[in-house]
Sequence to fold (334 residues):
Amino acid sequence: MPPISAGYERSIIAVPGAVLRSQSLSPSARTQLLIDMYPGRYEILNMDLWGFEISDWPDLRNPVVVIGLGGWGNALNVAKGSAAYLVERMGARQFGALNADVFYRFDENRPTVTIQNGLMHTLRFDHGGLFAAHSPESRRDLLVIVVEEPHLRWDAFSEQLLDIAANVGATEFISLGSLYDGVLHTDAVLSAIASDADHLKELVALHIRPVTYHGPTAIHSILHRKACERSLKASSLWTHCPYYLEGTTHPGLVAATVGMLSRLLDLQIDTRDLVDEWEKIKREIQTAIEANPKLQKLIGELRRAKVRGARTSSPIKRTDGDKIIRLKDFRDVE
Fold:
């Protein structure tokens, strides 16, 4: 599908194909135009299934898409937190949002309401947004997407998102994930899948481990497959989190993830605030470990496994509360 003309930015937004959003057209006229443009495909282009609202299209240089999703593949909020950190540090501008009705179940991820003295002040359906980030020091800009993993219509979500990426001229697609694993809290372990062998070699050269896995998946796999089908350079970058930590965002692993993105994309992102915060938390975690024999035993086993080169190959089940360190207990905020 050719890119949509910028002159139509308030009339046409990319979905699986292109869908008219013009308020000047009646519903019947929009329907007929869609049928004429995409014969046999209108059933998947129903206006009620359009999932994104674009305020205006950004002008980006050779952009890279970076998406961080909350949900199942967001252990310790490293994936979504890293994308959000890019938005903050790069001063990214929001240009789009999700139509939450299309992709989410509100009984699982409820809107937030503020009521004071019997009057409703705010009602928020906050499931994420699309941001344009300009990088003067690099030859490439970023389209950063910070969203919750959809509950519904993964295929439509992925198609629509990649059509938006095509419309801004993106040539590379990176999805961020984080998972619990049998790693130490002092380590930063990243793994990835890539669109082809050459790209995988680039990642391995940066000490990113190739993924070997069979089992349930997050939406990252659908996004990655569709990006590859569109001939984009694509990778899914996963940060491994120690399974004996839980709660709130892990600043050290966010710093490691953003640092790796900086190396991959030739960015200059200062993460010293995260590193300083993590050093403080790390000292407090060590004190907690020294006071807990069960944690000492667990971490000793992980260290010995690391020396042997042994790693877990399946998701970790965390059931023993005595072996869990809650990060929120050591943070000043959140």
Observations:
- The chain has two domains: 1-48, 51-330.
- The first strand starts at residue 12 and ends at 15.
- Confidence is low (pLDDT under 50) at residues 1-25, 40-48, 312-317.
